[in-house]
Design goal:
The complex is a heterodimer of chains A (379) and B (186). Chain A has helices at residues 16-30, 72-86, 101-108, 131-138, 149-159, 172-176, 204-217, 231-235, 254-261, 279-286, 297-302, 317-328, 331-344, 350-365; strands at residues 2-6, 34-39, 51-53, 58-62, 65-69, 90-94, 109-110, 113-117, 143-146, 164-165, 190-194, 222-226, 246-250, 266-269, 291-294, 310-312, 372-373. With 379 residues, chain A is α/β, with parallel strands linked by helices. Chain B has 186 residues and is mostly helical. Classes of the chains: A alpha/beta (379), B mainly alpha (186). Chain A binds chain B through residues 58-64, 69-76, 97-101, 103-104, 106-107, 125-134, 136-137, 378, and chain B through 51, 54-55, 57, 59-73, 87-88, 90-91, 94-95, 97-101, 104.
Chain lengths: 379, 186
């Protein structure tokens, strides 16, 4: 099958959606399909052979933070040309309600279109203002996929109709085995965090507060933090006596990311909201890290209601400190959680997930026709 | 006798001076209030014109969605008002800054009028904010005088604050036309 996949965010900037698309594309290629991905990209970085660049994304305020998005007529004509030349059996658009390439692809394409919604976005009222433009684009989608219940609710609210739930995949073999970083986790115990340091909903502030409590009573305990953001700004928020024990790695390479999961005794996912699946959580599970996570709906589902990881009240630093402390003191419990997580995560392994996605492709193809472009429109 | 006259004279002069100061402060506060009302009206107008552009069907759906989101956030913001209004500026800047933005709209019915209206409303925000901050600066400097503070001549009038947003429709660094006039590019 020839599959065209549309990525809304800059390819080489780390992000859950980009990783999802990369793993999906590579798994589909492994399964024998022909795949082309179009994505915003920076000029200077080499792209995998299956990725077609759609120009640079522009930083613009969106949804309370600054996103790098590709919008406008020029981007739309690039997508249109790619679709016209691609001769796809199925077009698979990601994040059709984010103002970027996915939405534009829906706008200019015809034929079998599958759309995956990743983000749970509780706000929808303002979308009415853009409704005339949105509707003509979104009505063409033949099948919708949501990666979580929360994302599915968003989709139903914005677009009406229903969606198939296919959870996010994790490439388990990529995470299963790795050496820990030199000197980690160490004898005094180590907590870990991975994600944007400066995005409040990732919850690093909650973890730093919890570390303030735990670190004071456990002199050897360290905290390993990996992810983009202003390190100086974060260091300033740690009480001075503990500052030397919070190690900020900044943005890490793909290989080092895997090693981070293998370098800590307890992995913390203190997210305060907005997380529709939590790819980071699934990765930590694949790596067999004992997990303490916020009691978000999506996290509770992935962690099987707490069997595959401890849950604590969202945003409650004291509860996080207590849960992490209990695990640090109980190696048997940690081993049990690690084993349970490794089993639970198999349901999200990419070869399993991709089969469900292909079933959706095959279903929309039954309607007949190939992917084409709207006639007449500029470009 | 002379000294009594002098003391009474001085007291009268002081009274006149103080009431003049109080009156001036009062006028400054009134000016701030009027400037604030003008600023609020200009901001609201910009929001509604941005929403109109978003729902006009002239733009691609992604740009429409960006503008609608930014305008909605600006309209519903409370304590983050200045940030959200700045975000609306940036969203407009991103929309108008697209390569060939104007070329893509040329000849579309209503496009020129609507774009001109967006530009006019953005310029009005720029002006209204300048006048408002001017009035605030004058008022704050008058309120800072020791005599005014000692005798509480400002009375119960709330202390006005500056309104700081990014309202230039030219990207910082790309601005070669001076900072006094916002220009839309595109």
């Amino acid at each position: 099958m020839r599959v065209g996949i549309v990525c809304p965010y800059t390819w080489d900037v780390p992000g859950g959606v980009q990783e999802h698309i990369r793993d999906l594309a590579e798994t589909l290629i492994d399964l024998g399909h022909e795949v082309s991905v179009i994505s915003p990209a920076d000029d200077d970085n080499p792209l995998p052979g299956y990725v077609v660049p759609a120009g640079r994304a522009v930083p613009v305020p969106y949804n309370g933070s600054v996103g790098r998005l590709a919008f406008g007529f020029l981007s739309a004509s690039r997508v249109r040309r790619w679709i016209r030349d691609g001769q796809f059996d199925v077009l698979h658009v990601h994040e059709p309600v984010v103002p970027s390439l996915g939405l534009l692809a829906c706008w200019v394409a015809t034929g079998p279109i599958v759309a995956t919604v990743h983000t749970a976005n509780p706000r929808s009222r303002w979308m009415h203002a853009a409704r005339p433009a949105l509707q003509s684009a979104l009505e063409k989608i033949s099948a919708r996929i949501a990666v979580s219940e929360a994302a599915r609710t968003t989709l139903v609210e914005h677009l009406g109709g229903d969606a198939v739930l296919i959870p996010n995949g994790v490439s388990v073999r990529r995470f299963e085995k790795a050496d820990s970083l030199p000197g980690w986790p160490g004898s005094g115990g180590a907590l870990g965090f991975l994600g944007r340091m400066d995005e409040s909903r990732k919850g690093l502030a909650v973890l730093l507060a919890a570390f303030g409590m735990l670190g004071a009573e456990r002199p050897g305990l360290r905290l390993l933090v990996a992810g983009p953001g202003d390190a100086a700004d974060i260091a300033a928020r740690v009480p001075a006596p503990l500052r030397g024990r919070v190690i900020l790695l900044g943005q890490v390479s793909e290989e080092d990311k895997v090693r981070v999961y293998h370098s800590v005794d307890v992995f913390c996912a203190p997210n305060t909201g907005g997380e529709s699946f939590g790819i980071v959580l699934a990765e930590a599970m694949a790596a067999g890290a004992p997990i303490v996570a916020s009691d978000l709906d999506a996290f509770r589902m992935v962690l099987r209601g707490g069997q595959a990881g401890e849950l604590f009240a969202i945003g409650d630093a004291g509860a996080l400190a207590r849960a992490a402390g209990r695990l640090l003191d109980d190696p048997d419990r940690r081993a049990a959680l690690s084993a349970a997580a490794a089993v639970a995560v198999r349901a999200y392994d990419w070869p399993v997930i991709a089969r469900d996605v292909v079933a959706v492709y095959e279903t929309v193809r039954l309607g007949g026709g190939r992917v084409g472009v709207v006639a007449g429109w500029p470009g | 006798m002379t000294s009594v006259i002098l003391i009474v004279g001085a007291a009268v002069l002081l009274g006149v001076y103080l009431s003049w100061r109080a009156g001036r402060l009062d006028r400054l506060h009134a000016r701030v209030e009027a400037a604030r009302a003008a600023l609020e009206a200009a901001l609201l107008r910009r929001i509604s014109v941005a929403l109109e552009l978003a729902s006009s069907g002239l733009l691609d759906p992604a740009t429409s969605l960006l503008l609608a989101g930014a305008a909605h956030d600006a309209r519903t913001a409370d304590e983050t008002r200045e940030l959200r209004e700045s975000d609306l500026t940036r969203a407009l800047r991103a929309a108008f800054g697209q390569p060939e933005f104007r070329a893509s709209l040329r000849g579309r019915p209503g496009a020129d009028e609507l774009l001109a209206e967006v530009e006019a409303s953005a310029h009005q925000v720029f002006l209204a904010r300048k006048f408002y901050n001017d009035a605030v600066a004058a008022t704050l400097s008058a309120r800072r005088r020791w005599l005014v503070r000692l005798l509480r001549l400002a009375g119960g009038a709330a202390r006005p604050g500056f309104f700081e947003i990014d309202d230039s429709l030219v990207a910082a660094g790309a601005d070669e036309q001076g900072t006094d006039m916002p220009h839309l590019t595109g």
